[in-house]
Write a structure and sequence with these properties.
The complex is a heterodimer of chains A (about 120) and B (about 350).
Chain A: E1 5-13, E2 25-31, E3 33-35, E4 53-55, H1 58-68, E5 78-79, E6 82-83, E7 87-91, E8 94-95, E9 111-116
Parallel strand pairs in A: 1-9
Antiparallel strand pairs in A: 1-2, 3-4, 5-6, 7-8, 7-9
Chain B: E1 16-17, E2 24-25, H1 27-44, E3 53-57, H2 62-77, E4 83-90, H3 97-111, E5 115-119, H4 120-124, H5 128-135, H6 140-159, E6 163-165, H7 170-183, H8 186-191, E7 196-197, E8 204-206, H9 214-223, H10 239-254, H11 258-267, H12 273-278, E9 283-284, E10 291-292, H13 298-307, H14 317-326, H15 329-332
Parallel strand pairs in B: 3-4, 3-6, 4-5, 6-8
Antiparallel strand pairs in B: 1-2, 7-8, 9-10
Helix pairs in contact in B: 2-9, 7-10, 7-11
The chains are: A mainly beta (about 120), B alpha/beta (about 350).
Iron/sulfur cluster binds near residues 91, 140 and 233 of chain B.
Chain lengths: ~120, ~350
């Protein structure tokens, strides 16, 4: 495990997995440092240095999931720079509202759970 | 951020911020307060008495799955003395209801409750699949809603239960309040927040999760590892409801108490007795015996439209009588079996029209 990437366990639930090729759990490897605006670097732009870097946080992870793993209906996943209201996020089994939400700085092996509350009754 | 400790026991690590109160609490305290609040809702509204037979309307979704679990827990813990059943309606929607019914069947094992499944097909002779292929995806939810309501009552009467509880949560009720405001439907506005409804001739229905936030229901299911089904119905259009829901979630994000506040404002609109008195008197459907405010109940009217191949036009009593003159209905139409009310028959006096 090199220190310039982080490997995270990401789990989807409550129907959200349907937007991610119906796969509930996946390991996701992301850079430890990412562009300050959470934009996801594409392979071609690798050489271009973004003006500012930040430690990878949950906001970046959300953008990364949308770019790399989402297969259906992006509007049901995110709104502006965060998850759509009605999607719950847990960081290591704790409500992300207690962990600083999108600003939480990710650590290697963190477990992130995303659950939709909007499906089915 | 340093992990906060629980605001209630000051001991364990907080895992959840309660939307209702903003309190940060630990897992065990969360389970306890969630269950206790439902218990208080039940006590305050005096929903049950010992010996009651209660059917839980179970769809396999999050709300009814958590409801079944919590009802069982509370019934054991506080000795309510209830006999609990699971009651599921099979609308006949391939790839949706057939899968969710598998979840209900697992719940039956897990919670050790008798399960009754009643299908649209056996009751009405039409599955939702067949209805949609006939009428398209426009009014399907109108049919589905009317058929489900009557199917639940009929299922309950077969089980001989006194009471149906459903998993409607605070978000659902707040959403319905919003929609009734948007439509200007004042009569429904007050009624939709009532925790327990019982008409002359109907089985009691109530909503023990009236004050339970959706977020907490989903968190409860997650932390308890409850097994639920979460796929959208393949025929769900309901754009209106979608809007109201999104609006509500935005409000909640800005101010979590908005949901309870909306419910309270709906409650403030209780319909005055005089207005109720002018509403049509209840009678029973002349064809199937189910309660109805017209000659035919809504289900029989819709069914007749389907059978006559004119489901998209509203059939009034007068138009139907005319059609009957041409071709008597019972000969050509499939009808719903006779409804047997679980309650002793009461004679309903129909007030003369003034
Ligand atoms: S979305 Fe409409 S058709 Fe589907 S189950 Fe609900 S009411 Fe029935
Ligand atoms: Zn605690
Ligand atoms: Zn009828």
């Amino acid at each position: 495990m090199s220190s310039d990437t982080l490997t995270l366990k990401v789990e989807f639930g409550g129907g959200l997995e349907l937007l991610f090729s119906n796969k509930r759990i996946r390991d996701v490897t992301i850079p430890a440092f990412v562009p300050g605006d959470s934009s996801v670097p594409s392979p071609e732009s690798e050489s271009i240095q973004p003006t500012s870097l930040k430690q990878a946080d949950v906001t970046f992870l959300l953008h990364y999931l949308r770019e790399k793993h989402l297969t259906d209906r992006p509007e049901l996943f995110m709104e502006k720079d965060t998850v759509r209201p009605g999607i719950l996020v847990l960081i290591n089994d704790t409500d992300w509202e207690l962990e600083g939400e999108g600003d939480y700085v990710l650590k290697d092996k963190d477990e992130i759970v995303l659950i939709s509350t909007l499906h089915g009754g | 951020m340093a992990p906060a400790s629980c605001a209630l026991c000051q001991n364990a690590k907080a895992i959840l911020k309660r939307p209702k109160t903003g309190q940060q609490i630990c897992k065990e305290c969360f389970f306890y307060v969630f269950e206790t609040e439902v218990h208080h809702t039940i006590l305050e509204a005096q929903l049950f008495k010992p010996g009651d037979k209660v059917a839980i309307g179970a769809s396999g979704g999050k709300d009814s799955t958590v409801l079944a679990y919590v009802m069982k827990t509370l019934n054991d813990r506080y000795k309510y003395g209830l006999e609990l059943f699971l009651l599921s309606i099979d609308e006949g929607i391939t790839g949706y209801r057939d899968d969710s019914l598998e979840t209900v069947k697992r719940n039956q094992q897990q919670y050790d409750m008798p399960l009754k499944i009643l299908s649209y097909d056996e009751l009405y002779g039409w599955t939702m699949d067949a209805i949609v292929s006939r009428i398209g995806k426009k009014n399907n939810c109108t049919f589905c809603g009317v058929f489900r309501r009557q199917a639940l009552d009929r299922g309950a009467s077969t089980l001989n239960v006194d009471h149906i509880v459903t998993g409607h949560n605070a978000d659902d009720i707040a959403e319905t309040v919003l929609m009734n405001i948007m439509r200007g439907d004042i009569a429904r506005l007050g009624r939709c927040t009532v925790i327990c409804t019982q008409g002359e001739d109907t089985i009691k229905r109530s909503k023990p999760f009236k004050y339970a936030y959706e977020k907490e229901i989903v968190m409860y299911a997650y932390f308890k590892k409850l097994d639920y089904f979460s796929t959208e119905c393949i025929y769900s259009p309901d754009a209106y409801r979608g809007h109201a829901r999104a609006f509500l979630k935005d409000l909640e994000a800005a101010r979590p108490s908005a949901i309870i506040d909306i419910i309270h404002s709906g409650e403030a609109f209780e319909v005055k007795e005089e207005i109720k008195a002018t509403q049509k008197a209840q009678q029973t459907c002349m064809r199937c015996g189910y309660m109805s405010s017209n000659e035919l109940c809504k289900a029989c009217t819709l069914l007749e439209g389907l059978e006559r191949g004119m489901a998209n036009s509203v059939i009034t009593d007068r138009a139907r009588r005319k059609m009957d003159e041409l071709r008597p209905a019972p000969d050509i139409l499939r009808t719903i079996p006779q409804y047997r009310s679980p309650l002793p028959a009461v004679s309903v006096e129909v007030a003369p029209q003034s």
